[in-house]
Amino acid sequence: MSETVIEALAAARAAYERAIEALRLAEGAAREAGIEATPEVVEELTVKRINVVEDDGTLRMIIGNSTMGRTAPMRGRAFEHPGRNPMAGLLFVNDEGTECGGLGFAGRRTGDGKVQWGYFTFDDYEQNECFRLGYGREGGQTEKFLEFSDQPEWSLADLLEELDGVDPVTAAAIQERYFGQADGLGRSRLRLAREEDGSVGLVLRDARGRDRLRFVVPADGEPQLEALDADGVSRSLLPD
Predict the structure, then answer these.
(1) d(CA 138, CA 111)
(2) Is the pLDDT confidence value at 165 over 80?
(3) Rounded to 10 degrees, what is the CA torsion of 140, 141, 145, 149?
(4) What are the b/e assignments for 106-129, b being 16+ CB within 10 Å?
(5) What is the extent of the structural domain holding 16?
(6) Tally of domains in the chain
(7) Domain presence at residue 206
(8) Residue 70 has what DSSP assignment?
(9) Residue 153 domain-assigned (yes or no)
(10) CA angle, corner 133, sides to 128 and 135, nearest 5?
(11) Is residue 16 part of a domain?
C-alpha cells in the first residue's frame, strides 16, 4: 500500500472522528433544548456485511456472508487471507484493528454427500488460533473437537506487511524466515475429540507438540490409556 493511500486513510479516519464528535455535540444540544431523538426501528435488514466500528472508526467486528473471510483485518488494514474456507459468520477484532477470533459456519450437499462446518475460535495476539471448538463433516466422516494450541511469538501482521506486493520468490524467502524458526509453527497441546474414524479421545502434548498421553476409546474396541516418552515410544499401556 502506497504512502499516499495510507495518508488518505488516516485523513479519512480523522474526518470521521470529527464528524462523530460533531454529531455527539449536536445531540447533546438537542437534549438540552428538550428535544429527544427517537431511534428509528427497522423491522428487517437485508445486507451482505455489517462492520461494527469504534467512535474513531476502528473496526471491531464484522458480521457477514461467506465472502467476509477473503480478507483479514490487521492493524487497521485489510490483507488478503491466504486460505480461509468460505463461511458466513462473525469476525472479532481487537482494540488495534487486528482479527482476534470468530464464528464461522458453512454447509452444502455435494456429489460426494453432505458437507458441514462450524467453528468458534480465539486467536493469540497477532497470531493464529489458540483455542478452537469445532465440528466438521464430509460425506460419512465427521469430527467434533475442542483444541488448545500454543502459537509463536512472531506477528502475522508483520509477516503480511512484508509479503504485501513482493514477487513469489521473495515471498517464499520471507515465509521461510518466519516459519523456519525453532518456534515458527503453532503446536497443539490438548485435543478432546470425536475423530473421523469414530473414536473418541483425549490427547495431551508437550511444548514441542509431541503426544505424551493418549486416552482413546475406539469406535468398536477396548479403551486404551497410553503414556509416551519424548521419542514417541510407548512406556505404559492399559490394558496390556
Answers:
(1) 11
(2) yes
(3) -150
(4) beeeeeeeeeeebbbbebbebbeb
(5) 1-41
(6) 2
(7) yes
(8) G
(9) no
(10) 115
(11) yes
